[in-house]
Design brief:
Blueprint: E1 6-8, H1 17-23, H2 33-50, E2 56-60, H3 63-74, E3 80-85, H4 88-99, E4 103-108, H5 117-125, E5 131-135, E6 137-138, E7 143-144, H6 147-154, E8 160-164, E9 183-187, E10 198-203, H7 205-213, H8 223-230, H9 241-257, H10 259-279, E11 283-284, E12 295-299, H11 306-317, E13 319-323, E14 332-336, H12 343-359, H13 368-377
Parallel strand pairs: 1-13, 3-4, 3-5, 5-8, 8-9
Antiparallel strand pairs: 2-10, 6-7, 9-10, 11-12, 12-14, 13-14
Bound molecules: pyridoxal-5'-phosphate.
């Protein structure tokens, strides 16, 4: 049926009606008083989501643009960087740093595992790093990394901690100031419940000292230019005004629900999804201790190519799961429960999964996963 889709991928994610409505308002000039008031409202609210007292800059670009802004402003050619890699997005962050001439020391923890703090400690003890790159929520594997733990270690060194929070901020707790995160990046189309097109970047005082000294070239992504404009609730270049209007509404939604409740909801959805997957006898990629609250990666069972399963889900049930990336391509599928997601989205995902497996002649007991998810939501978990 036309227009009846269940978009369960880790970005872009479904956009709530109130956000769509906010974005359908008439255009305003970006140098107007109305825009300044809008920008100011956003600034006050987004600081809560980042848990920072410092400014959060809103850039018109995708999440990767935000990561590039972090790198371009902090690093100079020849700088030594420690990249903590747990999957595809960790690799991308390292590649951006390399593109800007940094000397990147990559540490790979494996696809499906989280960052081992003992290794970070050992690496930092040798010293000499200008920055440490970490991914909060590794979207490609459904793994959540311990940013508080990494932050405590990096804070004892002169290095800056740059965090990719693209698929966590707005769905998973992050305390930028308390956890000693120096640059925190997120994007609009993941847990922030907006269409793609904005990146948000928080900057610590420790990072500003480095950024101000940095002589490496930057123009569109210049954070000093963004800071100067923000003094007048402005942006250096034309921003995506429509998405700013949407962001204002999305932040209202998050704060009305309460951030604690938002985080609890994501954890519950992840747990129900994981219980259902286990009940069906399928294997989860990430262990419970490092499981992502916003996306669950599942190993496709023997004899069932993940991408064929996804094709059946899409064609027959209108459900879209994400596939695997990099070395996991064709081997896993990923179910997002990110942003504008609630219990019944998980029920759709699980019952669709059961039917698709049955369609592919995989021996599945219909209703088993559904029941496990239902019991989780009813507080009758068998674990
Ligand atoms: C989606 C994502 C990105 C990339 O964002 P784009 O908006 O596609 O550029 C980066 N990091 C993580 C962890 C992501 O999930």
């Amino acid at each position: 049926m036309q227009d009846k889709h269940y978009l369960l991928i880790p970005g872009p994610t479904p956009v709530p009606p109130s956000v769509l409505q906010a974005m359908s308002r008439p255009m305003i000039g970006h140098r107007s008083e109305e825009f300044a008031a809008l920008h100011r409202r956003i600034q006050e609210k987004i600081k809560h989501v980042f848990q920072t007292e410092h400014e959060v800059f809103i850039l018109t670009c995708s999440g990767t643009g935000g990561l590039e802004a972090a790198v371009a402003n902090v690093l100079s050619p020849g700088d030594r960087v420690l990249a903590l890699i747990t999957g595809n997005f960790g690799e991308r962050f390292a590649n951006i740093a390399r593109a800007y001439g940094a000397e990147v020391d990559e540490v790979h923890f494996g696809w499906g595992s989280d960052v081992d703090l003992a290794v970070v400690k050992e690496k930092l003890a040798r010293g000499g790093y200008k920055a440490v790159l970490a991914t909060h929520n590794e979207t490609s594997t459904g793994v959540l990394n311990d940013i508080a733990g990494i932050g405590a270690l990096v804070a004892e060194t002169p290095a800056l901690l740059l965090v990719d929070g693209v698929s966590s901020v707005g769905g998973v707790e992050i305390k930028m100031d308390e956890w000693h995160v120096d640059v925190l990046v997120t994007a609009s189309q993941k847990a922030m419940m907006l269409p793609p097109g904005l990146a948000m970047i928080g900057v610590s005082p420790k990072a500003w000292r480095v950024i101000e000294e940095n002589r490496a070239p930057r123009f569109y992504f210049s954070l000093p230019a963004a800071r100067k404009s923000l003094e007048k609730w402005n942006t250096p270049y034309t921003p995506n005004v429509t998405l700013f209007q949407g962001l204002d509404a999305a932040l209202d939604m998050m704060l009305a629900e309460g951030l604690e409740n938002v985080y609890r909801r994501h954890r519950l959805l992840a747990r129900a999804t994981r219980n259902a997957v286990r009940a069906l006898g399928l294997e989860l990629l990430a262990g419970d201790a490092c499981a992502s609250p916003t996306v669950t990666a599942v190993k496709s069972p023997p004899g069932i190519p993940a991408d064929d399963l996804r094709r059946v889900l899409k064609a027959e049930f209108g459900i879209t799961f994400a596939g695997g990336q990099g070395i996991l391509k064709g081997k896993i599928f990923r179910i997002a429960h990110m942003g504008f997601a609630d219990k019944m989205d998980v029920m759709v995902a699980v019952s669709g999964l059961e039917m698709a497996l049955a369609r592919m002649n995989y021996p599945v007991e219909l209703g088993r996963g559904v029941r496990a998810a239902q019991e989780t939501f009813l507080g009758r978990e068998q674990r």
